[in-house]
Amino acid sequence: MKKTTKKVGWALLGMMALAACNKETEVDPTDAREYKYVRVMVSDEVTNEISIVDPRNGKVETFQAKFPMGALYTTESGRFGVVVHRDNNLVQNFDTGFENHGDHVDVKGTPKWAAMVGEGKLPTHFKTKADEVILFNDGDGTLSVGKESDFHVAGMKLKTIETGLKAHHGAMAKFSNETYAITEKDGSVAGTLPERVRIMDANGKQVHASTIQTKGIHGNASDGNVAVFGSASGILIVEASGKQRLIAHPADFGTAWFGTIMEAGQPGKFVGYTAAKGAYLIDLATDKVTPIVQTDDIMQAKVDYANNRLVILMHSGEVKIYDLKANTLNTSGNILPATARDEKQKPQLAATSKYLYVTQPKTGELLTVETDNLTNTSRIKVSGTPFRLSIMGMESSEDH
Known about the structure:
Keywords: Signal. Residues 1-19 form the signal peptide. Helix content is 6%, strand content 47%. The protein has one helix spanning 2-25; strands at 38-44, 49-54, 59-64, 71-74, 80-85, 90-95, 98-100, 105-107, 112-118, 123-129, 132-137, 142-147, 159-161, 172-174, 180-184, 196-200, 206-208, 217-222, 226-231, 235-239, 244-247, 260-263, 269-274, 278-283, 288-294, 298-303, 309-314, 318-323, 328-334, 349-351, 355-360, 365-370, 373-381, 386-393. The two termini are 39 Å apart. Strands 3-2-1-34 form a four-stranded antiparallel beta sheet, with no helix packed on it. A hairpin with a 4-residue loop joins strand 28 (318-323) and strand 29 (328-334). The longest helix is centred in the N-terminal third of the chain and has 24 residues, at 2-25. It has a single domain (37-393), classed as YVTN repeat-like/Quinoprotein amine dehydrogenase (Methylamine Dehydrogenase, Chain H, 7 Propeller), CATH 2.130.10.10. The chain is mainly β and 400 residues long.
């Protein structure tokens, strides 16, 4: 009897311990803090310092890039940050150590620089598709590409794809069929902006020629099946099949056009932004261009990390958050003092589903603002003159 009681006692203790363990790994649905596996990467205008911020607990780790003023991006997987030093012909990759497994996140190592670098000439336009990073090199019209699986291979460099194109301020997008839509310069318009888009394969060979000549192209986004390019002649739609068409700008645009295109989190829908007119929803199914916010006072316009909401930060310091699926305003409020339009280094914005992050160049801080409660803010000290930022990691707090 004593033995039986002892066994039951140990079993109960084991169950209690297991329950306690499970309780520790469960995520409280009322937890208003940022997700456990989200990080914010911040570069500096003056120094080589890169700040990796864990906004959930306010901790900051510091790393040294090769140069200051790095433009920052994140791979589609969320695991790697990409630092582009355009004027120094260098691309660096940074590993969060987080690996997404759908229902949970594994930690594969400590935050660190990856071995792979890019050495293209004036790397500028960045895109990511599946496990590939892609950069358009303005200096010679080539592409630089690399797979995440090679990022930690010693001595590895981004592969150069020779396109046979003239040097220009270009852009590209990768389709799900492994081909690329890439801009080309035909010289019909003065300056560095391209006028056309062709489709090529992974070796740089043309698959589909351009069928539409524009008066200048800048900015693009893709959902894998269709690539959308901003152009002075209208919104240029390029399908993976090679078919191309233009969608007209709203009638009151005059000479204004979308120089920034962003994904809107739904098939066939994109956001077009121009400082002169505001942000608009582009629906490829109907070819309609619908206003989201009409103003010429926008300082920053960014789609959040999950591509569900558009965040607008005005020069006045007011922020507006829009639901892209419904095209409705979720919330708005002032989070900053007004910023002069001619300010040299303006605050930069990024957002997750839970928080907004805004650099404070004059105080060396990162402002955090809860999206569901704009009065819930905090400031995290980063480098002396924060320059650019990018969200990395995964919107998850689930462990293995």
